């Protein structure tokens, strides 16, 4: 069953002496650039959902994923439940009108070539933060990548 939250996950790479790079994905249905994204399922925590979505959308093996490389960011947003037809009826009965979106980042510095593009996307690109801010569609994604940049510079 679909849970009442979404996640956004930034795959990123930061090699010594280089700028932060992140991987963005072009959605097949909307034609917009975004990070890995999706909704929670059943009793998943947002962190578990982020790992599952990363696996589903990028083909990264669950055995490969190291949970200590996952960072939960402070950036969050909310979206009207109306954007999710499968949730609307039940959500309104429970007086749920918006669902939160939690942001995460995953360090792929040593493993940039592990992706297998899912059917949800037409392409992916490794870009700088400035390129990401220009190409990304959703404000949360832009905010989250700026937060990530500040975190990794420390």
TrEMBL record:
SUPFAM superfamilies membership: Nudix
GO molecular function terms noted in the UniProt entry: bis(5'-nucleosyl)-tetraphosphatase (asymmetrical) activity
Top-level lineage group: Bacteria
Protein's GO biological process: AMP biosynthetic process; ATP biosynthetic process
UniProt keyword terms in alphabetical order: Hydrolase
Record keyword Hydrolase present: yes
Cross-referenced InterPro entries: NUDIX_hydrolase-like_dom_sf (IPR015797), NUDIX_hydrolase_dom (IPR000086), Nudix_hydrolase_domain (IPR051325)
Name this protein carries in UniProt: Nudix hydrolase domain-containing protein
Gene3D superfamilies reported in the protein's UniProt record: Nucleoside Triphosphate Pyrophosphohydrolase
Family matches, as PANTHER family: BIS(5'-NUCLEOSYL)-TETRAPHOSPHATASE [ASYMMETRICAL], DIADENOSINE 5,5-P1,P4-TETRAPHOSPHATE PYROPHOSPHOHYDROLASE MUTT
Pfam name, any one: NUDIX
Start and end residues of each Nudix hydrolase domain: 1-149
């Amino acid at each position: 069953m679909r849970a009442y939250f979404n996640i956004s996950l930034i795959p990123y790479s930061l090699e010594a002496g280089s700028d932060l790079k992140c991987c963005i994905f072009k959605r097949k249905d909307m034609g917009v650039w975004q990070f890995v994204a999706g909704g929670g399922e059943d009793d998943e925590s947002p962190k578990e959902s982020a790992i599952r979505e990363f696996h589903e959308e990028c083909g990264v093996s669950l055995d490969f994923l190291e949970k200590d490389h996952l960072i939960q960011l402070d950036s969050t947003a909310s979206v009207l439940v109306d954007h999710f037809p499968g949730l609307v009826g039940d959500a309104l009965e429970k007086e749920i009108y918006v669902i939160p979106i939690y942001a995460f980042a995953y360090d792929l510095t040593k493993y940039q070539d592990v992706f297998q593009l899912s059917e949800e996307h037409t392409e992916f690109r490794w870009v700088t933060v400035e390129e990401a801010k220009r190409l990304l569609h959703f404000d949360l994604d832009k905010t989250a990548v700026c937060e990530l940049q500040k975190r990794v510079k420390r």
